[in-house]
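Lab notes, practical 5.
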Amino acid sequence: MTRIAVSLALLTGLAACLAAQDAPSGRFTGRGAVLTLSEGRYSFEFQGRTMVTGTMRLEAGRLELTDDGGPGICNQGTGRYTWRESGDTLRFTLVEDPCDGRKNGIPNPVWVRLREGLALTHATLIDGTGAPPRPGQTVIIRDGKIAAIVPDGSPLPGDVTVRDVAGQFVLPGLVDAHVHLATSPSGADARSRVERRLRNAVLGGVVAVRDMAGDARALADLARAAAAGDIPSPEIRYAAVIAGPEFFDDPRVRSSSVGLAPGTAPWARALWASSDVRQIVAEAKGTGAAAIKLYADLDGTLAAKITREAHRQGLLVWSHLVLVPARPSEVLAAGVDAVSHAAFALWEASPLRDYRNRGQIDFSVSADHPAIQRLFDEMKRRNQIFDPTLFVYRADSAAADTSLAKRRAGRAAEVVRVARAAGVRIAAGTDGMGTEADGALPNLHTELELLVERGGLTAMEAIVAGTRTSAEAAGLVATHGTLAVGKAADLLVLRADPLADIRNTRQISFVVRQGKILNR
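Output from the prediction step:
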């Protein structure tokens, strides 16, 4: 064969190879723009706005681009380019192009592939359902959701960033089932302070919170900012409070409804027997609240009336375990979804006092009193959720350092043991999310510890309480609380096994919130 024939054969083979290769695909960024190449189409975005769309075709090893839409469209003809991919970089070389915009934009020095997915490999999963841990798993995350959970070694998509978490434990992010973010937005709950608390919470593994009533004006704005990713924060679900008229001389209500007469704010409404419950609930729903909270000075009949209407309008109902004059069993009979504060269970076996004195409990009553046993049997039968808030009782006892405060904390823990033995579903709430001090861990870690060490839960039961059950209490179980395909990629990754020691929930490697890694 002659030298010329060999050269021609080589060139022919090279052309065939170029023609056979696949067109580049994926999303790439360069000089502030985003170039998307997929299935015969391309587009340019700049500052979040799509400027040009078009068709792409592979012809003799060249990429042919023809605009067909967008405010920056060029109608002068087709551009032709060659390209070279190396790892995550893509480079184009101009062959010919009549469009100035394309030929000035396409041959950027380099386009870098956007890695839009995340794969956590070699993980041990504790999925929030109570099932045994699953080692050797890979969690694939895309668009802020769990896209797949597969055994290690399974093929991975080409556009994922791989993070090896060998020896670490992946859990659903924690949910604090009892916080107050906006009791006093002009004072202790000023926006700057609350944002720091929320930041500490999410960096500490809390990905959602159930706010138990405050100023809905502030709460709605915080919830929007959290959902939009404008602030580092857990997801926020909040309640509007409804109570009897005598409750509204409480200074906390006044500070959370500044500018309105006490008891008239749609998110903090006084209720009389003659009130239009349907209208009151509708106005509460209009504040963005996910639930109605029943607080005090309500009898069982009114509590049931509010609950029925709230459920009819698609809202959850959260309540203190005693409302006075409604005793705990009447609160349960009203059909509420979740009840709070363990020590209030003792009122089921004691003569009720004025609602203002509901904290003055007779601690000579044993937690295993038959009336309290029946109370938790009924709660189990109704499938209602119990939010005992052991943290707040412990905090009170530490602050007061009195025998009464310590007795209250001890009795509350005993109540939790009785509830657990009855099979009641327990959520983990603190009634005090945490401080704004830099780097402070959220108080939910202490609540989980108390549930195990004083409330008698196993470490696995405490994790379920702080994930699935708390998510259900907040109305978030469809998206949070367990590790499952399609749920929010709001995860907690731990360096140590929380089943070996519940205090290991503090051993945080990193948090995933809305599909993005947050490092402490």
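Observations recorded by the TA: The radius of gyration is 29 Å. Residues 53 and 380 are 58 Å apart (CA to CA).
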